[in-house]
Amino acid sequence: MVKLVIHVIWVGLSTILISRLNINSFFMRFFRDLARSKARRRLYGNKHALVPMLLGMDDPIIKTLDDEAAEEQMVSLTLDELSYYDGEEDEDSGEDTPIYLAIKGRVYDVSAGGSFYGPEGQYHDFVGKDATRAFATGCLKEECITSDMDGLNEKELKEIDRWIELYETHDKYKFVGKLVDDVVEKVLEKEEEQQQEEDSIEEKEEQRDNEQDQSEKEQVKTN
């Protein structure tokens, strides 16, 4: 009887959740929470974490690797460098590259989840990128796979922390390092901004000169 009640409750909860999220997002978060609940049982002895997670009532546990050993081994990658680690075959070595992804600037090796993140995996579009917005919203469209967090609400920001918890506490995924700005790219962007400012100033000066010339011509006609 108890099993039947649990089954009915589970079906009901599943129906509610699926109605709120698209199918891909639902299963994506379901398997994430299943892995998180296993990690909490393994690390903290919590045997009842799954139901609150599925109801969205849990508070994420952020277990960042900030000890000295981890910091010494941590690498810094630019987005361009991160894009290399997509699980595809390396042209020089002929071997598949590791599979990295980033969320909120933190880079993780998810090679152990090749069936999900590998070239044939459902979430391969996430690898080699910082897909923070996609993790937050559940949107799997190309325009959503970005690090841009502008406009995210509190609920979506909490989703980011739940994903970070998954990658931080997973027994097979590994923290690699953090994303950093590409120095050369930043210099080029700054030069482009300066050029745009100079062009804008020149345009305003030219417009002012034209207006002044026009004003002088009108005065001459009047006289």
TrEMBL record:
The chain crosses the membrane at residues 6-31. Keywords: Membrane, Transmembrane, Transmembrane helix. The keyword Nuclease does not apply. Residues 77-180 form the Cytochrome b5 heme-binding domain. Residues 205-223 have a biased composition (Basic and acidic residues). SUPFAM superfamilies: Cytochrome b5-like heme/steroid binding domain (SSF55856). Residues 190-223 are annotated as: Disordered. GO terms for cellular component: endomembrane system; membrane. Pfam families: Cyt-b5 (PF00173). It comes from the Eukaryota. Residues 190-204 have a biased composition (Acidic residues). Belongs to the cytochrome b5 family. MAPR subfamily. PANTHER family: CALCUTTA CUP-RELATED, MEMBRANE-ASSOCIATED PROGESTERONE RECEPTOR COMPONENT-RELATED. This is Cytochrome b5 heme-binding domain-containing protein. It comes from Helicotheca tamesis.
